[in-house]
Design a protein that fits this description.
The chain has eight helices and nine strands. It is α/β, with parallel strands linked by helices and 203 residues long. The longest helix has 15 residues, at 170-184. It is globular. Bound molecules: guanosine-5'-monophosphate. Guanosine-5'-monophosphate is lined by residues 9, 12, 35, 39, 70-72, 74, 79-81, 99-101, 103-104.
Length: 203
């Protein structure tokens, strides 16, 4: 597999999707991994585009079959990344972008550390996060409360990431993200480097 992986995490409402869509033209060929989830679709979300929306039973069956590269329970719902499409994109040499939570990042780091670059995207403060969640008008107060509470746990993993983007200026955040995405494609796998060293030393 010759591609690379860029993991993006951060609280819901941090602006991850806006940053990715604004940056998409600048970062070249990439594959955005579409996760499966048991959470119900929000207004405007499309099955197979935003997520694969599946039932809890289907999700648990896929866990048993070993179909997931990683999965986690977030805000009371399952979210996971299927192995198949990701493997295909990696074997085509593509950059694969994941928008996953901190548990998923930890799992991926354990499994395929050598091709992973990661970035944590966050609003500048918890008050800014609350304001954004309220202004996007897609979740009720109880769900917003859950997401805010979850962000307090998530932020504890911030040091595990290669990069952090504090999104208080969208243009600046998009520029920073483009630099990180371009750099993530240049990450060499240890096997490739070992081969390079052997050739260099004529072993
Ligand atoms: P939302 O419900 O706002 O779309 O997503 C909630 C959280 O689930 C976000 O932090 C998002 O990054 C995370 N998430 C989405 N897909 C996946 C996935 O496939 N795996 C994991 N571990 N987390 C995911």
């Amino acid at each position: 597999m010759s591609g690379a992986i860029l993991v993006i995490s951060g609280p819901s409402g941090a602006g991850k999707s806006s940053i990715i869509s604004r940056a998409s033209k600048e970062i070249g060929d990439y594959y955005f991994s579409i996760s499966s989830t048991t959470r119900p679709p929000r207004e405007g979300e499309v099955d197979g585009v935003n997520y694969h929306f599946i039932s809890k039973d289907e999700f648990e069956e896929d866990i048993d079959k070993g179909d997931f590269l990683e999965y986690a329970r977030v805000h009371g719902n399952y979210y996971g990344t299927s192995m198949k499409a990701v493997k295909e994109a990696l074997s085509e040499g593509k950059l694969v972008i994941f928008d996953i939570d901190v548990q998923g990042h930890a799992m991926i780091r354990q499994r395929i550390h050598h091709i992973v670059t990661s970035v944590f995207i966050t609003p500048p403060s918890i008050d800014a996060l609350k304001a954004r969640l309220h202004s996007r008008n897609s979740d009720d107060d109880a769900i917003i409360e859950k997401r805010v509470k979850n962000s307090k746990d998530e932020v504890e993993s911030i040091c595990d990431y290669d990069f952090v983007i504090i999104n208080d200026d969208l243009d600046k955040a998009v520029d920073e993200f483009i630099s990180i995405a371009k750099a993530s494609k240049l990450k060499y796998k240890s096997e490739v480097l070992e081969k390079f060293i052997k050739q260099w030393k004529n072993l």
